[in-house]
Amino acid sequence: MTQSQAASAAPAMRVPLLDLKLQYRPLAAEIQVAIEQVCASQAFILGPAVKELETAVAAYSQCRFGIGVSSGTDALLLALMALEIGAGDAVITSPFTFFATAGTIARSGARPLFCDIDPATFNLAPAALERVIAAQCERRGAALVHRASGTHVKAVMPVHLYGQMADMVPLLACAQAAGLKVIEDAAQAIGAADSAGRRAGSVGDVGCLSFFPTKNLGAFGDAGMCVTGDAALAERLEILRVHGGKPKYYHALIGGNFRLDELQAAVLNIKLRFLDGWSAGRQRNAAFYDTAFAGARLGDAVRSPPAAPRGARHIYNQYVIRCGGRDALRAHLAAAGVGTEIYYPVPLHLQQCFAYLGHRAGEFPEAERAAAETLALPIYPELTEPQLRYVVDTIAAHYRG
Questions:
Q1: Which CATH number fits domain 275-400: 3.40.140.10, 1.10.10.10, 3.90.1150.10, 3.40.50.300?
Q2: Is 370 helix (H, G, I), strand (E, B) or coil?
Q3: What is the DSSP secondary structure assignment for residue 211, as one 8-state letter?
Q4: DSSP three-state, residue 12
């Protein structure tokens, strides 16, 4: 076989980054019945399925209240609105995350203040948060002010990236000492827990979840939820979700249309029962990768994610490796039929839309290094052991030439 023929040959196996059809098939009949029940009732807006899901997800997240919303992005925006964060304010967050984290801060009228990540977990580094507050901010009366912009720093928004909780004990202590609210971006982390057993979304003032189809608990479209233990904040979130009206047509607040769709809630109520099993499947696959990569002896060419702290629960929404020559490896895997993704190729401080913040390359070196080195591998629970072995063998073959 010539080199050109070999290059055009079909891959020995195909391993997509994600295949939701495998999850859907055994649930299809039950889901269709639930959808038909909603259609028969014609109760499409904030009906009983939404209330059921809010109660169940709040309990699952160890919170008293759940407020179903239209997406994970809207959950973040609604949380900012409910905490009265807007023009003239600032929120500290990570530059290495999905766009919505900082995007919603900017949409609220506030200023994103970035601080670097922990290279081991990819999450907001507590030491970096302390440095930002000490070096860039000062007290002016009761307010914490960002010197360069004059904005009032109101909150910190840690992200539980890839399904692992940020180090919330020192982050929370730092935020409380500075008088800051804490909004947990738990879009990728429903059911993740720290070593004390506290679930993602339950530690700060409000947690924000996403049910985008690719999440461990995914809807059939966009959906999300805010969770909180604060009754007054929960009521404010509920009011703002429906244009700020309470009672209907009487508006003390300016809110928006952030309602969770009843059809999505009906689907999610069924899928929630299987969530722990699916997360366990992801953990099992991650353990296979860890062992297989260690056995492959690839040295620094491939570095698996570090193990979660003892007692903590990582749900592996993504399994992300660091690798040398990342883009060449990705092309090799694609040619071999293996799906991958880069989360995220451009850190937020270098995105064109945030040029007004005045950041330059090199300011957040760990975020920039992660953006250049990381690659997400297939991790969904329905993967077979031969598929997992094929992924590892294909990567090993690439680095061994």
A1: 3.90.1150.10
A2: helix
A3: -
A4: coil
Beta strands in 275-317 (DSSP E): 302-303
- Judged against a pLDDT cut of 90, whether residue 225 lies above it is answered with yes
- Asked if the model's pLDDT at residue 2 lies above 70, the reply is no
pTM greater than 0.85: yes
Comma-separated ranges of CATH 3.90.1150.10 domains in the chain: 275-400
Beta-bridge partners for 207:
184, 227
pLDDT for the residue numbered 23: 98
In this structure, which topology does domain 25-272 adopt according to CATH?
Aspartate Aminotransferase; domain 2 (3.40.640)
Distance CA 213, CA 382 (A): 15
Rounded to 10 deg, the angle between the 275-296 and 385-400 helix axes is: 30
Instruction: Tell me the pLDDT tens digit for each residue of 77-133.
Output: 999 999 999 999 999 999 999 999 999 999 999 999 999 999 999 999 999 999 999
Strand partners, 373: none
